[in-house]
Amino acid sequence: MNRTARALGSSGRGALRLTVYLLWTLLLIPLQALAVARNWGLCRTLPAFYHGVCARLMGLDVVVRGQRADGPVLFVSNHSSYLDITVLGSQIPGSFVAKSEVGSWPFFGLLARLQRTVFVERKARASVDKQRDDIGSRLDAGDSLILFPEGTSSDGNRTLPFKTALFAVAARRIDGRPLTVQPVSVAATRLDGIPMGFAFRPFYAWYGDMDLAPHLWQAFRLGGMTVEVEFHPPVTIDGFSSRKALAEHCHRVISNGVACAISGRPSIPAPVTEATSAAPAPTAASA
After folding, report:
1. Domains along the sequence of the chain with CATH
2. Structure confidence at residue 206 (pLDDT)
3. What global pTM score does this model have?
4. Which CA distances in Å does 81 have to 49, 56, 187, 261?
5. pLDDT of residue 269
């Protein structure tokens, strides 16, 4: 069997990974449910541990660059797959902001609720203020949140335009200081050491009208995938003229990070066209 065939998967490997993943998940669900119900600190730290183990079970080698800012932080990331949840969840002790439909999905909706996901109605303009307040209250409580402002998943080869409405929360001040916003780029780059390129990247990316079950099964069958995560310099709204300008800066930085990762070039910091105020000092990203 040649290298490419091995990379594209084995049913035996997929069955083993899927079995262990389900056992691991079912083992932790009662503990996380109890932690959420009792509001234990464990409910904030257990998901990162869970996702870290899941990443290893699925053969995801997460390569981290840059430094993760200390919370509360609004992390802004591109989005190409449900696997982004595992990848980012293993590196960031926080909760996701997701469209409301996710909460009704079988099994994965339960996992999202147990991670204390903030669900939003992306098409309901009348509820923008409520959604901003829901997100803001979590940040006020000291939680970090992960936002996918593209509004949908891409093919992983580019970053779609950002929707600016939810950037309104960036105007919030935490203990009198502007909220820290940190752009994060995520890119699947190699499959068993082979550059993924346009041909292999759909094995990671889940978008358009792809069916979830077959794609998930293929993901469990695949060889090891390298996923590069880069934490870019954090900023605050005080350094920009508007939330639109902040969103455009985040999009530019993340697009550059994705393009550099998939091309194998070193990441070059994107220029900041408006003066940025100092953000709180970052801490080292978790391994």
Report:
1. 3-283 (3.40.1130)
2. 93
3. 0.89
4. 20, 17, 10, 16
5. 64
